[in-house]
Structure formats: C-alpha cells, structure tokens
Write a structure and sequence with these properties.
Helix content: over 70%
Shape: flat
Strand content: under 5%
Oligomer: single chain
Structural class: mainly alpha
Length: 234
C-alpha cells in the first residue's frame, strides 16, 4: 500500500489556492504593545475610572487656566462691595469689592497643587516604610509600626496645627504637616498588603532562588501592595 506525499506549499500556491493563515501565538499577539497600551485598555473598560479621569483633567485645566487668567485680577478692588451674582460678577463680590469668581479660579491651582503634593509626599515616604517593615520584620517592623502608632495617637488636625506652629505658616510647611499625618496610613495599608504578598508561593520561590531583598520589595511586593493606596489616596 502506497501513500502519496502531501503537496508542497509552492504547489498549492501555484494551483491558485492560498495557504491557510497562520494563527499568531499569544507572545506574537502582544509583541510590539507597550505596558501603557494595556493600562489604557483596562481604564477604557472601567467607566468609573474614565469619568474620574475626565473630571480630574477638567479640574486641572481650570486650575491652569485660572492661574494665567486671574493672576492680575484676583486682588483688584472696586467700589462694587458685597454684590450678589450678576452678569458682570457671576459669583458676586466680597466685602472689599473683589470678584469672587476670579479669586476662585486663581486659587484652584493652590488647592489642587497642594493636595497632589501632600498625597505624593505621604506615599513616597509611607510606601517604602510599610514595604521594608513587612519584608524585614523583627525589631525593625516593631520600631516602624510603633512610631506610626504614636503619630496616629494624636488627632490629625491638632498634630498638623502643632507642626505649623513649630515650623511657621507657609505653603511648604502646610504640605509637610498634612503629609506627616497621612504617612502612617499609607504605611499601615502597604504593610498589610505586603505581608500577604510575602507569603505567596512566587515570592517564596524568588527568595529561594537567591533574589535580592531590594529587588523582591520593588518588583514583586511593591506593584501589588501599593494598589490599595492608589484608591485610598483619592
């Protein structure tokens, strides 16, 4: 019994039939795509995240516009004292005749900028403290967490006011004082998540293979443990 050899691809092409299309592998399908592309895909599917991003960009645009528009108008005094909303003054005027809308537009960059700086500073200090405390444990963990507990023992507003009274009243000291209040909250949230990640099998396998502690904290524990902070930091 004889079997005929399969026709070559050249023969199939010569006969006029196209060869079957090759299905790309998953690795080939994602090749050439950056990480930001997949982040954008996940954000686009989340309507709440898209709505929040649009509102944030809108507020940011208003703050930038108000900084340049109201730089020379927010402190102009007129004789129109304590007027209600009108076509000339949409939000009215204060007791010195200054337009309230101009002052709101100009002050937006201070409010948004101060809030962003506070969250970033608290996260940049609290996340490494929580990660290192969870990973190294022992006396270092106890010392860091007891220090965080001491800060949390004071009322937030009272502690911020005490810091400003000691350092002086200016924008930089306000940011430092309020960030100090939020550092323990970031540290505790990250520490709790990092303790869970530390006990996972892939973290134990990486540690057994000789990976450095700094690399494990930065590339294994940090991406997952810091996720709650992105929502909690609001």
């Amino acid at each position: 019994m004889s079997f005929s050899a399969p026709a070559s691809s050249a023969a199939v092409t010569a006969s006029g039939n196209q060869p079957p299309e090759q299905i790309p592998t998953p690795a080939e399908a994602v090749s050439g795509r950056s990480l930001w592309y997949f982040i954008w895909l996940r954000l686009r599917r989340n309507k709440s995240a898209m709505l929040g991003g649009i509102l944030f960009l809108l507020l940011l645009g208003i703050a930038v516009f108000g900084y340049f528009y109201g730089a020379n108008l927010y402190n102009v005094q007129t004789r129109d004292v304590r007027l209600g909303p009108s076509a000339k003054h949409l939000f009215g005027t204060d007791n010195l005749g200054r337009d309230i809308l101009d002052r709101l537009l100009y002050g937006a960059h201070l409010t948004i900028g101060c809030g962003i700086c506070i969250v970033l500073l608290a996260a940049l200090l609290g996340i490494p403290l929580g990660l290192s405390a969870a990973w190294f444990g022992g006396k270092f963990d106890s010392a860091v967490m007891r220090t965080m507990d001491i800060i949390l023992a004071f009322p937030s507003i009272l502690l911020a006011m005490a810091c400003m009274a000691a350092l002086g009243f200016n924008m930089r000291n306000i940011i430092l004082a309020i960030a100090l209040v939020y550092i323990p909250k970031f540290a505790r949230v990250v520490r709790a998540s990092a303790l869970v990640e530390k006990s996972m099998e892939y973290a134990q396998a990486a540690r057994a293979s000789g990976a450095a502690a700094a690399g494990l904290c930065c590339f294994i524990c940090c991406p997952t443990a810091s996720r709650p902070c992105s929502c909690w930091g609001r």
